[in-house]
Design a protein that fits this description.
Number of domains: 2
Helix content: 40-55%
CATH topology of the largest domain: Beta-Lactamase
Largest sheet: 6 strands, antiparallel
Order of helices and strands: HHHEEHHEEEHHHHEEEH
CATH architecture of the largest domain: 2-Layer Sandwich
Shape: globular
Number of strands: 8
Distance between the termini: 15 Å
Strand content: 15-25%
Length: 251
C-alpha cells in the first residue's frame, strides 16, 4: 500500500542502489543517473551517501560497487526473515526425491533465488546462489507475478518482455491460466518442466521444482504436494515470526 506521503529521496536512493547492483559491474554516476532518469548531480549525491554508509564503495576509477555494509545487511535480512531456514528441510525433501528445487523471492518484476539446488549436485551447494533475474524466466517468478496488479505488470512492461522470452501464448493468457490453476509451469530445452507455486497470496515468495520428462498425468498430484509444501513452509515461518509484508517499491 502506498503511503500518503512517500519519501521520494528514499525511492530515488534505492533506485540508484538497485541500478548498481543489477549491472554486475562497477557503475559511474552518469550511467546510474541515466538508468534511473535522474540528473547526474542528484545521482552522484545519492551514490555518495551510500558510499558514506558503506553500502557501496568506489573503485580506483571512481565507479560504484557493492560495499561491506551491503553484505552485512543481506545476511541480517536473511536471518531476520526466517524464510530460508523455514524452507530448507522441505526443499531438501523434494531434492531427495530427484527433483531440482528452488526458492525465490520477488521485488517488482525481479526474482532472487535464495536456493537453487540442481538434482545432480549436493543440496547444500544450492544455498546462497543468490542471483537475480527477470521473474518471467521461471515458473517461480511467474507464479509470483500472477499476484501483482494489472497496473504494475503494465508499468514493468511484462507483456513486451514476454514476447522475447516466452512461448506462443500471450502474457495475459499465461497470467490468467496461473491465476485459474494456482500454479505456473514452464517447459525448457531437453524436456525439462518446471512447476512453481506461491507461498502466499501476496506473491512475495515461491517454491519451484523441475525434472526431465515429467509425466503430464503426474502434474496435478505434484501441484497438490507443492501446495502442501508451501503451506508447511508458511507454518514454519509463522512460528519464526509474523508473515513478511510485500515491499512494492515504485520503479
Amino acid at each position: 500500500m502506498k503511503p500518503a506521503q512517500p519519501v521520494q529521496g528514499l525511492i530515488d536512493g534505492l533506485s540508484c542502489l538497485q541500478s548498481v547492483l543489477s549491472s554486475n559491474k562497477p557503475s559511474g554516476s552518469r550511467e546510474v543517473g541515466r538508468r534511473c532518469d535522474l540528473n547526474r548531480t542528484r545521482a552522484n549525491r545519492l551514490l555518495g551517501t551510500w558510499r558514506y554508509l558503506g553500502v557501496l564503495q568506489q573503485t580506483e576509477d571512481l565507479k560504484y560497487a557493492p560495499g561491506p555494509a551491503l553484505h552485512v545487511l543481506a545476511g541480517m535480512g536473511i536471518q531476520a526473515s526466517g524464510l530460508l531456514q523455514a524452507a530448507l528441510p522441505i526443499a531438501e525433501s523434494w531434492w531427495q526425491k530427484g527433483y531440482s528445487v528452488s526458492l525465490g523471492v520477488r521485488w517488482q518484476d525481479k526474482i532472487s533465488f535464495l536456493l537453487q539446488a540442481p538434482a545432480d549436485t549436493p543440496f547444500l551447494e544450492g544455498i546462497g546462489r543468490q542471483y537475480t533475474t527477470s521473474a518471467l524466466c521461471s515458473s517461480a517468478g511467474l507464479a509470483m507475478l500472477s499476484a501483482a496488479s494489472a497496473s504494475d505488470l503494465k508499468k514493468w512492461d511484462c507483456a513486451k518482455e514476454w514476447e522475447d522470452i516466452g512461448d506462443d501464448s500471450t502474457f495475459k493468457d499465461v497470467i490468467k491460466n496461473i491465476q485459474a490453476n494456482n500454479y505456473a509451469t514452464r517447459l525448457y530445452p531437453h524436456q525439462i518442466r518446471s512447476i512453481g507455486v506461491r507461498l502466499n497470496k501476496e506473491g512475495q515468495a515461491a517454491l519451484a521444482i523441475s525434472k526431465k520428462r515429467m509425466s503430464e498425468k503426474k502434474i496435478p498430484e505434484i501441484v497438490k504436494q507443492l501446495h502442501q509444501s508451501a503451506d508447511d513452509i508458511t507454518k514454519r515461518l509463522q512460528a519464526h515470526h509474523a508473515p513478511l509484508e510485500v515491499a512494492n517499491i515504485p520503479a
